[in-house]
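step=predict obj=AMP-binding protein n=533
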Amino acid sequence: MERPRPSVDNLYGLLMEPVAVAPDRPAVVEADDKGVLHETSYRRLDLLTQEYAAALDGLGLDVGDRVIVEADTSAASVAMLLACSMLGLPFVTVSPQTPDTRLQTIVSAVEPALHARADSLAPRERVEVEGSAHFGPDGLVVERAPARRVRRRRNVLATDTAYIVFTSGSTGRPKGVVMSHRSIVTFLRAMRTDELAGPGDRVAGTSPLQFDFALFGIGVALSSGATLVPVRREDLSSPRRMIGFLRDAEVTQVHGVPSLWRPVLRHDPDLLKELEPLRSVVFAGEEFPIPELRRLQEMLPGVRVVNGYGATESMAASFTDVPDPLPAGLERLSIGYAHAGAEMTLVDGRGAIVTEPGQTGEIYLRSPALFTGYWNDPEATAAVLVPDPADPRHGQKVFKTGDLARLGAQGDLSFVGRSDYQVQIHGNRVELGEIESTLTRLPRVTAAAVTLVPRSGDHVLTAAVVLDGPGDIDTRAALAFCAQQLPAYMVPRSIHTLAELPLTVNGKVDRALLTEKLASPRRTSDLRHATNA
């Protein structure tokens, strides 16, 4: 059967629109291993995409077959994602730093036809995938071809899956968020309407490719005809290297979590004065501490700062300009109103719509850009894709976010917190239950609880465990075990042995009291002493 044809609402079609109007405009600017900048035009990016698509098509894969793409963000990895989109092959992005155990869990869940790795990465000997390949600027090389399929599909539809992003899961296993072409294309068209970026922008992406914030940056840049500028992991580790790269690449917009800016603000804020072309900063994934945000505005006068709010299940929900200067006494930033084509509604504990300013409720998101569901988990899907509380009779589903917000006088929202045990770590969504489940697999651990503890202006993951008898946990071995099972951002900073976990009157872990105990070295040592007695 001939190659499947992509529909109008296809991620490839949207992101490659600039080829028709400005083929020689740079689509991607990236640094090589020596730090030298290289440009890839929209024309060249499309040619590489077509080359990859031809190689993938030769494997006889059918629409819907999954492809794991392991890489950092680059022109080659973007072309790989676009080639998959063109053929209707849902891509599952993973980071080269993903532990083998976690990657194998994802592989077992989605049963991919192909594991495609960037050229620079060695094969993973302990991860079993039917087919394997590596790709780079010179093409895609198939190492082990998957079994040929019987193609049942002729067209790639807007409702077909574009990608699956795996986030932390409360059951101890990663949770796959399934996004259709229609949803992601609708979202990116809304971003064009909101004019987040334009053809003259150079958009720096700082998140690993496995996270939706990286896909957001790729989509916003290319769908608006701008230039994507991925920042290498090694450059992010040093404020001087990061600022030097942003300066040399003439970046006009930076996407990143607030903690991206903390090292330079603390140690060498004058470096920010070198970013003369910079016009905007977009942050998301966690709250920006107000003192640090004030300092950033002081060092980048006139630069637009945008507060992004949302979840992987909808890519994002709102983008709100931060007042400049920030009002005196401001405690929380507004998350404003939903982006073009979407709407956020607050619902109280009785299920009623919140209409009075000052009241708090859970955010329900109406949007044509919602995810399809969680991969192979209809129960979890049904818990968050729910009938519209305003009028359930029409059958429309809305996203029950689990986020709490306060209604402002002008109808805008201010984020208050979560209604469950989910937290954000440097822009990564983390279910505390997954870390706790990992800890309980350690020898002698009978119970575990994890919380965020304030440390030097930041919040760090801190764990408490209860053992089956006297003694203390081998912290080094426990942390090493966690590092083998979990991504680096989910590994607790420290693990403490307690005689027992603090509980509420309902028998649940009292996380507020646990945070207080773990934040106080004296109280923690008292409990540890009681355990060792």
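step=describe
The chain has three domains: 5-150+161-170+180-308, 338-420, 423-532.
step=end
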